[in-house]
Design brief:
Strand content: 15-25%
Radius of gyration: 30 Å
Structural class: alpha+beta
Number of helices: 4
Shape: rod-shaped
Distance between the termini: 35 Å
Number of domains: 2
Bound molecules: zinc ion
Length: 140
């Protein structure tokens, strides 16, 4: 989108949005552009400000989402540290270990590791609830 400040021959100024610069030319040629104050068709472009508008909007947006990502990542790192500290890592044998814990009620321990999609579905079928957490890298 491009915003043009349009000006008629009586110096009325008003803003108008176009999908691109060609659209402005097209509408002007077809006499579809007129002054919103005096209905004059003698319209010209005044100050053009799309670049400033667009880039500042984009930058703000990017800064905000970057901040959000950092915030979320920090939380996930905290979660990762908590799991690493309080849970036993069992790696690929997670599905096997989890069953042992689930069926041996006395053996309550916290473990973490990885499962295949198939293993996870099998465990779910057995009524074993798993939590999957996003595992973020500590670097960057
Ligand atoms: Zn006018």
């Amino acid at each position: 989108m491009i915003k043009y400040i349009l000006e008629c021959k009586k110096q009325h100024k008003f803003e108008s949005w176009f999908s691109n610069s060609n659209e402005y030319e097209k509408l002007k040629k077809r006499k579809l552009l007129k002054c919103i104050f005096c209905n004059s068709y003698s319209i010209k472009k005044s100050i053009m400000s799309p670049k400033v508008l667009n880039s500042s909007f984009k930058n703000n947006y990017e800064i905000n989402s970057l901040k959000e990502i950092k915030k979320v990542k920090k939380e996930l790192l905290k979660l990762r540290k908590y799991v690493e500290k309080n849970f036993k890592f069992v790696g690929d044998s997670f599905a096997k270990e989890v069953r042992e814990i689930y069926y041996d009620k006395k053996n309550k321990k916290n473990i973490y590791g990885s499962t295949t999609k198939k293993e996870r579905e099998e465990l779910e079928g057995e009524g074993i609830d798993l939590n999957t957490i996003p595992w973020v890298d500590k670097e960057n």
